[in-house]
Amino acid sequence: MINVHGTIVPVVDVRRRFGLPARDFGVTTRLVIARAGRRTLAVPADEVLGVVEVAAESVVPPEALLPGIGHVAGVVALPDGLMFIHDLDAFLSPDEERRLSEALDGSGA
After folding, report:
1. Does the first or last residue of the chain, that is N or C, have fewer Cβ atoms within 10 Å of its Cβ?
2. CB 36 within 8 A of CB 88
């Protein structure tokens, strides 16, 4: 957890969800602050290259390219590769949301 302007924000490592090996994080870790459903989260990022604004009509539904890919709301072709737009409203399962709430409330095991 981190403190962002007086608000406690959980740090959620999603590397395992994407099939990536575990990694140690420290004070120099880059974090992306995002809203996932009703909760603000900090997600560690291996690298942050910047912010890209894209036109809504350039977003392709994920099923058109990769059927069955979860937690992706769309895909955009950029000059140097593909950008996946993750569906943060569906990012946490109800069970993950419950466990996170319990941990933040101090009632988790």
Report:
1. C
2. yes
Amino acid at 99: R
pLDDT digits (tens, 9 = 90+) for 17-73: 778 898 888 888 899 998 877 788 999 998 888 888 999 999 999 888 878 777 888
d(CA 48, CA 42): 14
Report whether 52 contacts 83 (CB < 8 A): yes
Pairwise CA distance, residues 25 & 47, whole Å: 13
CATH T-level fold of 2-105:
OB fold (Dihydrolipoamide Acetyltransferase, E2P) (2.40.50)
How many CB atoms are located within 10 Å of the residue 65 CB?
14
pLDDT recorded at residue 100: 84
**Which H or E run includes 44?**
strand 39-45
106 to 12, 39, 109: CA distances (angstroms): 17, 17, 8
* Number of neighbouring beta carbons within 10 Å of residue 91: 21
Residue 77 pLDDT greater than 50, yes or no = yes
Per-residue pLDDT at 57:
94
